[in-house]
Amino acid sequence: MYLNCHTYYSLRFGTFSEVKLLELAKENHITRLALTDINNTSACMNFVRKSAEFGITPIAGIDFRNGTEQMYVGIAANNEGYKELNDFLSLHLHQQKPFPETPPKFEHVFTIYPFEKVLLTEKQEFTEYEYIGVSIKNLRKLPFSSYVHMKDKLVVLQPVTFRNKRDFNAHRLLRAIDKNVLLSRLPTSEEADADEKMFPIANLATAFSEYSFILENTEKLMKQCHIHFDFSQGRKPQNLKTYTGNRASDEELLEKLCRQGLSYRYPEGGASILERLDKELELIKKMDFVSYFLINWDIVCYARRKGYFYVGRGSGANSIVAYLLRITDVDPVDLDLYFERFINLYRANPPDFDIDFSWKDRQDVTQYIFKRFDHVALLGTYVTFRYRGVVRELGKVFGLPKGEIDLLADGKYHSVLLDEVSSLVMKYGKLIEGFPNYVSIHAGGILISEKPLHCFSATNLPPKGFPTTQFDMVIAEDVGLYKFDILGQRGLAKIKDAMTIIKTNYPEKAASIDIHAIASFKKDPRINALIKKAQCMGCFYVESPAMRMLLKKLEVDNYLGLVAASSIIRPGVAKSGMMREYILRHRNPERLKNAHPVMLDIMPDTYGVMVYQEDVIKVAHYFADLTLGEADVLRRGMSGKFRSRDEFAKVKAKFITNCREKGYDEKLIFEIWEQIASFAGYAFAKGHSASYAVESYQTLFLKTYYPLEFIVAVLNNGGGFYGPEFYIHEARMLGATVHQPCVNKSLEINRISGTDIYLGFGYLKDLEKKVVNKIINERLIRGSFLSFDDFLERVPISVEQISILVRMDAFRFTTQNRYHLLWQAHMKLAGKKKKPDIPKLFRPSQRSFVLPELQTNVLETAFDQMELLGFPLCSPFELLLHPPKNSLGSRDLSRYLDRYIDIYGYLVTVKNTATHDGKRMHFATLTDQHGEVFDTVLFPQVAFKYRFRGRGIYRFYGKVVSEFGFLSIEVLKMQKEDYIQDPRYSEGNSGSYRHMLKTL
After folding, report:
1. 416 neighbors 76 (Cβ within 8 angstroms)
2. Which of 12, 237, 876, 968 might form a disulfide with 178, Cβ 3.0–4.6 angstroms?
3. Chain centroid to CA 960
């Protein structure tokens, strides 16, 4: 009898989930129920999926509203009607236009107009499928209206939005957050009625007892409605069924492409290769995943045609078919990748292909996919209310001052001391936490389906301009829609840009470079030596301090070692304590006796330690006797929403029961379980790690043989783990001469000529882009600027903008003092109207000025650079107020092993972390006076006394220690060293910039 029910997917309006709605309906003895969220169908599929568990027949619909004004409720008679509703809703969401007074003529939809709306519009004509909805509240007016005689058109439309008073209060708070007003200022027109509740079916019947025909009409309408989605274990995929239009043709094409790929990937052939290929092809056909592979192949073919770099990652990298189709560059035979992690008969979903493109190319690839295939949408995801954010929003709604809101949001309060309003903020913050706030876009998921995606939900149209589903990946997979992951990353742009620079600077060498020749890179002793020394700054995934430390501890000098390191560095392995155990077993084979024999037998290559996602499946299957299907449920259940699923709980219980039946000790059972639990949600598939290692080797090749070109490419793509300053420092350490921006040499991005690197104008954050474009265009058209006056005549520019360039010494080709140029700029430009951007036929004469004596020095230049670039181009040690008392550096650490050292370092990066008992500690990376890197650790007792206070030079006193050959300093004392006073603002400097401005 309930045709108008809302969940919290009626965003910032509803107050509970679709599952809670079903629970409420069961409590009230409801057997048929319609979910009609406001302008949203996000919850419909899960509502249908879960309804059978509650013995309820689901009905799907939409409550169409303009703001809070209810226009009508659409009820889908069947799946066709559901699509009609989604089509209509999506059209209006995409075009951001209000809903009309009456909807279009639907074929499979019942339209219910609210009684109050009908009274207002005096609507008299109704089609066969249109009704008037009457709530309990409307029963007071019904007898006095002419509509009481339209007996065949009246149905029950009792809205359900709340369960109790608390829900109603939460609803009002959500409405106030949505409207950004104080709760006391929230108009009642923005609220739902407090009586929008669900009553037991008997009570509802009693309320409408005088109008039994309304109950009969409602029952009749509801019995005509049915909606179905296949959520069964044997469900068929809903992705595009065929690539060519014919299944047999698809299979023939896939086989043909694989055979063609054999000569490229395996020129020497081999029976084992063909055996593996036949095995995979047979299973791919059996699982009906042929089109899935061909679509991915189509996408990467487009990328290659356009010259785009890409990397195929994910569990799909375990497949030889993917390797032959060039979806990935990972050889699964060479790595002995576990095929069953990639695909098995117990698994309904296809393999996971994460295809990374350059951040510059991804948009075009996405555009291609939308044009190439018919039924495409981006996968949605919901951003939920986070606790601190909710507390801040509620604090504003209740009118609390900012200081009090900050204390509540940061948890800096004693609950017993909270006043009534603050207590309400905390109470409702906990209630609203986790509610969906708005629909966003999945990081890379794209759905390509056999039928229109409006068969599953409506779509939004975010600013990126691509339709986006109103459901997330969990329910998508439940119904058989499997995403294609099209991701963007800067690492690939660095490779591509480096190759472009190399082709420009070394055209004869560039012709012989095959950046995909990974096999030769793996064997290159120079590249492997770079890995062993951990000199990997700028290189994909291996440049962070943590990775540099791990590479040294593991003594990695080959591809397989790098594959393992790429996974071991993940949080799961470290958190479970198995990273340390892996290193111990790697360096000391005697340690293997600590491994459980079964675990060692399952994972001999990783010393009985779980390193890859496949290891979870292996352990669950061989150690706990779970089926491969159950083992995969376990693996997937360790991350995200799957952990809360009932099926995960069942598999966990079976894992423990099976282990007990096998006679394992209780301590061992739960020790292994905890390893899985802390590890599986963060681990990589081995093929995924191998894909990362491939890209690492590509960047390592460039860093080894074309280091300066590579560093420039890194800088031009926003850097990496570190800021630009440290890549510039690295370039200098590699032999580059780094020049600050110059109006005659620089572009917006950095450029390199031989070993000279000219920084781009883009680093000057206050320099307007239009000014940069004018400078570059003028230079390209009419040649270099001959003088300062020549520049002023040719480039329309304000005194504020040219001051930035002068202070950056961008006119140093004139050999004139910077302050002289600043004076000239102010005299010639200040107070003048902006000149029209029109070239002149004749050059006007320039007035001459007699300028006062002005001086600049190196220190003033450094401070200008710090202000304009964010960092100095000289050594920061030159700016110290007191010179260092020694010259000790990284190269001296081995001499001081197990002894105490006094050392100075310029801060590169700090990792703030906490011990298991919550105490703060720090890991810091610094450069010494010679430009070399060293690492420090501040344990809790030291971290409590000393804090890092931003960028600068610190003096440390501590003990040099070695852990598995990696040297670091356990700090005992630390202080930040002072820089000299900024000479530009020195009162005694009569030639300073400050003095000049005063004079002007």
Report:
1. no
2. 12
3. 38
Cα 795 to Cα 775: distance, rounded to the nearest angstrom: 7
Locus of tokens 């000289």: 874
- DSSP for 272-293, please give it: HHHHHHHHHHHHHHHTT-HHHH
Quick one: how far is CA 479 from the chain centroid? 24
Short-list 173, 172, 115, 165, CA closest to 145: 115
The CA angle 478-383-638, to the nearest 5 degrees, is 50
**What pTM, to 2 d.p., does this model score?**
0.86
Q: Is the dihedral of CA 307, 308, 311, 312 positive or negative?
A: negative
Q: Which residues of the chain have a pLDDT value below 50?
A: none
Alpha-carbon distance 964 to 549, whole Å?
10
Alpha-carbon span 235 to 350, nearest angstrom: 13
pLDDT of residue 859: 87
Answer whether 367's CB lies under 8 Å from 306's CB.
no
Residue in this structure with the two tokens 């509502």, named with its chain if needed = 47
> Beta strand pairing status for 2-5 and 159-160?
parallel
DSSP state of 864: H
Nearest partner of 140 among 210, 200, 217, judged by Cα: 210
Q: Where are the beta strands (DSSP E) in 587-628?
A: none
Contact 350, 237 (CB under 8 A): yes
Compute the distance between CA of residue 442 and CA of residue 618 in angstroms, rounded to an integer: 30
Question: In Å, what is the CA distance from 146 to each residue of 88, 134, 256, 303, 583?
Answer: 31, 14, 73, 66, 83
- DSSP secondary structure of 327-347: S----HHHHT--HHHH--TT-
From residue 430, how far is each of 182, 331, 433, 438 by CA, in Å? 20, 49, 5, 18
Quick one: pLDDT at residue 877?
A: 97
The rounded distance, in Å, linking the Cα atoms of 294 and 284 is 11
Give me the pLDDT at residue 843, please. 55
CB atoms within 10 A of CB 766: 10
Residue 589: partners with Cβ closer than 8 Å, 6 or more residues away: none
Please name the helix (run of DSSP H) or strand (run of DSSP E) that holds residue 618, with its range, or none: helix 613-618
DSSP 691-754: HHHHHHHHHHHHHHHSHHHHHHHHHHTT-SSS-HHHHHHHHHHTTPEEE---TTT--SS-EEET
What number of other Cβ atoms are within 10 A of residue 140's Cβ? 8
Residue with tokens 């600590």: 594
Given a contact cutoff of 8 angstroms between Cβ atoms, the answer to whether 490 and 717 are in contact is yes
CA 702 to chain centre: 27
CA distance 702 to 720: 15
**Closest CA relative to residue 947, chosen from 901, 918, 907, 915:** 907
**Tokens representing residue 985 in the block:** 């603002």
> What confidence score (pLDDT) does residue 528 get?
97
Per-residue pLDDT, 487: 94
